[in-house]
Write a structure and sequence with these properties.
Elements (H helix, E strand, L loop, with lengths): L4 E9 L16 H13 L6 E2 L8 E11 L5 H11 L4 E9 L11 E9 L13 E2 L6 H8 L4 E4 L14 E12 L2 E8 L6 H13 L7 H8 L14 E7 L17
Length: 263
Amino acid sequence: MPSSQRIAACIEYCGTNYHGWQRQKNARSVQGEVEKAISKVADEQVSVITAGRTDTGVHGIGQIIHFDTFSQRDAYHWLRGVNTYLPDDISLIWAHDVESDFHARFSARERRYRYVILNRTVSPSYLHGRVTWEPVSLNPRWMQEAAQSLLGRHDFSAFRAAGCQSKDPVKEVRRLTINYSHQWIWLDIAADGFLHHMVRNIAGVLMRIAQGLAPIEWAREVLESEDRTQGGMTAPADGLYFVSVQYDDKYQLPKTPEVCRFW
């Protein structure tokens, strides 16, 4: 009997039509669609492990998964076969053989998200569901200044959802930048790990500061409170993208597709 092999793969998806990444009994999920497609190509039931679960409406550019299979396929046939069975809003970008010690979640060294805001008085049309619309004028310079207090290793309890299942609220935010061009504002954040709703809650606090409804120091005060009730609004899911995951070079994974340089 042939031995099983472990495959790592990169998944890209628009989360608008899904109830999040995680497989669910009575709702459509990204994981459910990916597992169905891979199982058809493998000709056996396959379960996938992901680097990070995303919520309803959240999108993925460089989501990383792994799965074990007895099916012998090369990277080309995984790519062509799985994409044949996936819906139009999910794509397999690459597939790669890895050693059995690779784990999409536990081998990850860093994860990166991007939060995209369309800041204009008119709501989006063709980008509806793919960016967060904010009609009230935002000052991105205030957002950037406030964001500096969130860098480093902290207890992010004030930015986690009430139902967050993570055992450790302490995370290290390694990079947090605010960029803007005309009516676009985008937040890039990289950390060793994230809590449930952490990025959306950070975005909510920074947007409130950018509206002039709270002082720049409020971001630090919320963080130090370690109290979710002090943090205010959870920003919408529409503008959130799971961008990439960093792993040790020894796994020799292909590069994640570059995120759009404009936003």
